[in-house]
Specification:
The protein is an alpha+beta fold and 360 residues long. It has helices at residues 2-9, 23-39, 44-60, 71-79, 84-94, 101-113, 117-131, 204-220, 246-259, 270-293, 328-335, 341-345, 349-357, and strands spanning 154-158, 163-164, 177-184, 195-199, 230-235, 238-243. It is built from 13 helices and 6 strands.
Amino acid sequence: MEWEKFKRINGYQYNMELEHLAFDTQRVVLVKFIRHLHENNITASVINQILASIQFFMKVHCKDVQVFADSSIQLARRATLPTQRSESIRKEKSTRYPVTLDMLMWLRHDYYVHGDIDDKMTYLGCILGFTFMWRVSQYVSDNRTGHAILSEDVRFKLVSNRVIRPWEVKNINKSVFECVVFVVRSNKQRGNETQHLYLGRKSIKETQLLEDLIEWCRISGVQEGDPFMSRYTTKGKRVTHKKLTRNMVSTALKVVASAFGFDEVHFAPHGLRIGAATAGKAKGGREFVKGTAGWDPKSDNDLRYEHGTPLDDNALSISRTCFSVLTAEQVKVMMASQSNYEELSKSTPRCRRLAAGETL
């Protein structure tokens, strides 16, 4: 607790409590305590919460709390507020940039085609999150929520109309698969109703993703009850089961961000949803975005993900003709990024590895 730490550092008695002190002493101690919190990089909002908890404790015990209204205490609290410049810099650093389809195609080449099984799992989590505008909790199993897609929520339909589950895929030829259906549950936005998301062969990229998912079912060994984004590996007599984590997704997005010349601090899993929603609006408007993301038709949730630019009044993309028009170059124009793609891409470990053996 910061109060105990403060007393120890400043040489106060361990059993000293604020409510037992005289008014003037309370004022001096509180000012020092506020300074201590500020120098330990505790934000102004957290400092206010700590002081509020102390004030509440004193009220509950019928102690005088007038010291908190003293002008010296108010000045000390105001001194902890960030300047406009520092707050602007903080907000700029915390801005999340949209992840684009061309960035994900780069990730597929580096992670899915040339990576190991964990790299493949990471790419598939990213591309599924982008395709269906999922929250990260829907494709990552981190024990925080129970929203992750399980293997039994995934169903493949064959041209013969037979429906099979991921653990039944095995050696069936890819060409006889017609589509995959994801059964999404526990969406409070839709009153916990079930949502069915389809992925077929309507385009080259959609067919590619469908076949990647078929291959994933074969190599991952997922069974009924497992998160779909998980895998089994065998080393000797030891079998390990690993699930996709937020850290794996975040790391992959930072790798691709660096390769495209961005500051990686702006890229996180949430950027997949931002990029997909912005591009989706360019393709089919707000109703398309709401339907894909599973939002209530009457909600304005989609507006939270819209990133405007001088090139387009309504979406980040210049054109409205194709889902893939949202590109990394357009993000650079919007965010005024001056990074050099070619130079920075050569500096990433994965690009150096690829450059040594093949061309991207």
